[in-house]
Design brief:
Blueprint lengths: L8 E6 L3 H10 L10 H6 L9 H16 L5 E10 L9 E13 L4 E12 L3 E13 L11 H7 L1
Antiparallel strand pairs: 1-3, 2-5, 3-4, 4-5
């Protein structure tokens, strides 16, 4: 079972193919040619097709959901992304999160976790920085009521 204490890290490596980059952008409604046309992207100095912001954010959020779902139900409360450099198709990227703070919410059987994350590209460093807050319910405690509990946690 994953640890949820401050300073714990979790990560995943992946490679997005040009087809995946173009397909994701199309599904997201992003028609920017730097996600679809390799020659266009290269002519403009990008080096190849670039992942859309929506794809970069989705990869980071997906890692959070996958990681904490091993504990019990979880709900994302806040996610913020900082797009610094383009991530390119066909080149391995590293997705990484760090738990910064864990606040027990015993009245609902959950933990409010504050996170810092990044998407790193081997040759350029951090392409996307991220911050997030998630509510992770204990596997056998609490009741998941997304209509009210998440709002109460943020207000307290």
């Amino acid at each position: 079972m994953p640890e949820i204490e401050p300073h714990c890290r979790f990560s995943k490596s992946t490679v997005c193919s040009e087809q995946q980059v173009s397909s994701f952008a199309a599904l997201a409604g992003d028609t920017n040619p730097i996600h679809h046309d390799r020659d266009y992207a290269r002519q403009r100095g990008f080096g190849g097709l670039t992942l859309s912001g929506a794809q970069s954010g989705s990869l980071l959020m997906g890692l959070v959901a996958d990681h904490f779902a091993q504990i019990g139900p979880m709900v994302g409360l806040e996610m913020k992304f900082y797009f610094r450099k383009p991530a390119l198709a066909g080149i391995p990227i590293e997705l990484e999160w760090l738990i910064v703070r864990n606040t027990a919410k015993r009245h609902i059987g959950a933990h409010l976790l504050e996170l810092r994350g990044r998407l790193q590209h081997p040759s350029i460093g951090t392409a996307v920085g991220a911050k997030g807050k998630v509510l992770v319910y204990d596997a056998h405690e609490g009741t998941l009521d997304p209509t009210t509990q998440e709002r109460r946690v943020l207000e307290q």
